[in-house]
Amino acid sequence: MRLKLLFYFWAMLGLFACQSAPDAGQEAAEVATDTLSSMPQPAAQKPLPPPPPDYDTAAWTEVARLDSSIVIDMKYATTENFVEEKMYDCSRCFLRPEVAKAVVRIHQRLQKQGLGLKLLDCFRPRPIQWKLWEKVPDPRYVADPREGSMHNRGAAVDLTLVNAQGEELEMGTPFDFFGPEAHPSYTNLPDSVLANRATLRDAMLSEGFQPITTEWWHFSLSGKNYALSDMLWKCY
């Protein structure tokens, strides 16, 4: 009996020791955590400022510098245009300062409706207008560069609407579609398309932009007389 009691005593003593001993792994983890928390943390990286303008800021504004949330998709920097050829070396959207600010105001108002603008063409240098004219010397589709267009003056934009995810809304025809279906007066379209066109038109009219009769995507700021320009932008 005495041996049984002695055995029981030593068993209980061992069990108590196991329960009270600290977990070595947990203790090491706590030490490591304390060490890391006491180490100096690297400072948060600040976003790099944009490079200084490489153009005459008194004459021009790059729209992306005013509001980077505007989608820029210059179609003449791609082959997705009526001549199916790349005309611009890179996709940069320039407008006269007053025109650019008006476009940004429209975009920011549309954002409150869950919409936004996607710019398809902005200022078009007159040397590019000459290239277009050489390919399609038809004033119904390309302005004669000797007289120039509002694009060559930095006062016109080609654009469409996008949703909050940046997806284009349906407008009935693609950009640079030449036919009656692209005319703003054409109504044989689904109600949703007509509503989208009306939303874009009303937004542009609110800032003094005027449409033309053959292209739902084209608007120019009325009442302004800017000079024709041959300015060519740089690419990086």
Architecture overview:
The model is unreliable at 1-22 (pLDDT under 50). The longest helix has 19 residues, at 2-20. The protein starts with a helix and ends in a 15-residue tail after the last strand. Helices cover 33% and strands 12% of the residues. It is built from six helices and seven strands, in the order H-H-E-H-E-E-H-E-H-E-H-E-E. Strand 6 (209-211) and strand 7 (218-221) form a beta hairpin. The chain has 236 residues and is α+β, with helices and mostly antiparallel strands. Strands 2-4-5-7-6 form a five-stranded mixed beta sheet, with helices on one face. A two-stranded antiparallel ribbon has the order 1-3. It has helices spanning 2-20, 24-38, 63-66, 97-111, 126-135, 191-205, and strands at residues 61-62, 71-72, 94-95, 115-121, 156-163, 209-211, 218-221. The protein has a domain at 61-221: Muramoyl-pentapeptide Carboxypeptidase, domain 2 (2-Layer Sandwich).
Key traits:
236 residues, Muramoyl-pentapeptide Carboxypeptidase, domain 2, 5-stranded mixed β-sheet, two-stranded antiparallel ribbon, 6 helices
Topology:
Elements: H1 2-20, H2 24-38, E1 61-62, H3 63-66, E2 71-72, E3 94-95, H4 97-111, E4 115-121, H5 126-135, E5 156-163, H6 191-205, E6 209-211, E7 218-221
Parallel strand pairs: 2-4
Antiparallel strand pairs: 1-3, 4-5, 5-7, 6-7
